[in-house]
Amino acid sequence: MKPLLDVRDLVTEFPIGGKQGLRAVDEVSFKLNRGEVLGLVGESGSGKSVTGFSIMGLVDKPGKVSSGQILFDGEDLATQSYEQMRSLRGRRIAMVFQDPMMTLNPVLRIGTQMTEAIHAHEKVSPSQARIRARDALGMVGIPSPEERLDAYPHEFSGGMRQRVAIAIALLHRPDLIIADEPTTALDVTIQAQIISEFQKLTEEQGTAVIWITHDLAIVSGLADRIAVMYGGRIVESGDITTVLEAPHHPYTRGLIRSVPSENSRGTRLAQIPGVTPSLSRMPEGCTFRTRCERATDACRVRPGQFGNELDYHRCFHPFEEKLA
Amino acid sequence: MVTSLIRRMIQAAFVIFAMTLIVFIGINVIGNPVDILINPDLNQAERALVIKHLGLDQPLWSQYLSFIKGLMQGDFGDSFVYKRPALEVILERLPATLELALCAMVIAIVVGLPLGLYAGLYPERISSRLIMTGSILGFSLPTFWVGLMFILLFAVQLGWLPSNGRGETAMLFGTPWSFLTSDGISHLLLPALNLALFKTSLILRLTRAGVQEVIMQDFVKFARAKGLSQSRIILVHILKNLMIPVVTIIGLEFGSLIAFSVVTESIYGWPGMGKLIIDSINLLDRPVIVAYLMMMVILFVTLNFIIDICYTLLDPRVRLEGKG
Q: Region A208-232: what's the mean pLDDT?
């Protein structure tokens, strides 16, 4: 079966002062089938959000996709015109952002912000658009949606606003939703609600999801597949249970071990030493080698993808055994 | 809304009262009108009679009290020079100033707002840099110099436009207006442009700064992610958010146009209030000066109030606070 989204060697660069640009996304490749959920995991600055924006064609200037392909349903998004991308955005690929307090325009009514999204892609009468907006609000569990259409964002709590954002994303039953840490800014109890709601709706509609997060716990319960990013590259990719049980890359291993669990109670929590290097001073070769206990001189060479195109890692000294 | 209205009225009353004190004392410090107004050939008895007639024989506090008494009945006193009620003398000149100020403000908004939007949206373009450089000129060149240059260029060298007076006027609501006749408009053009130059630059720079601030917000990116057209994003999402500071400045600057267009009115021989107040100061025509300053206080208080109302129309968050 042809995948819905096939990203091949995507490079997104931010030019600085005439020199070669900073690579926020460095030869990233992954595939996503219809209805599948991919967890894109990494620390801040690993390039996971920029990957999402690259697919949407919304990379902040002066950054741009400088090479690689983003095949969406067979068409390369990297070469589409502005108008072609506009007609895809919101209709076939939607996005939910991290901070619900910032994603809705403070001076426009919720109803306006929803119906304008409908009008952007379909010719419908204002009253019909309003009915659809109302139903969408009801669908994401907002009480008395009819009245809430006339409310402004500041009259909603953070969780409610994120529900509105999700309702907007689902308006056109898109093939793909990119969820950029949609629960990070929310309370834990609200987080759980939003995640289960989101999961239910995307399953019903058969929507594929790229769930961008730094939280492995969320991904483990949600995703079919996982891609771990570090320093702009996917360092490990594969089936969620396989990767979580037997991670090959030392970074993946470190990430998993730094999540507190039942077994680790009373013992010191494992951590990855050091911090993510900034883009301008990424080490040559394997970007993780400066923080890696297994690093040798061999790691000064850029590691390729070991494995097949779906399940692979980028490490010269991979772990083979299961995680204890 | 009603309580805040009443609160504003009381505040305004205090401001006006404080202003009467300052103005009245200040005006007595700058000089004795008797020296200018009274014919030096008069003998001592006639002199005393005139002084008594003008009320200048009374001590200051008593003059002040009788002024306040008159004020309560809407009487600002009679002009020493014109021998008519001061308010009447001023109101006669109001239409000329008003149409000049309105005309200048319209030019400033019509030119400044779109150019500022453009420069903010495409800051890297050469045309934007030219606009910004031009605005620095408009900002820093002194009004009187620009006024003289305009006369030199358009009136003397090219002979396109007249440089003095209001030209032909037509009656509307019982007052003469220049903008109703083509000759009047040609007279109006140069002073209006002269006044508009600074205001245009101000609005332009403010709009540009606003655009650059708003465009970074997540909700603009989210609007793009919804697939909205560029024009909808700019004209609705961005413009509505940046109007709040722009409206403030437009309101206050309009007030200053009415109150302080002295220089331009003098250069172009425009028979407005600015010219009147300068003449009155030279002749120490106290009632006119006092009445004029009082009117300006009321003008600014009113403008501030209108700006506040505009806020509540533009920003729903302000509305909510008003309720509480």
A: 90
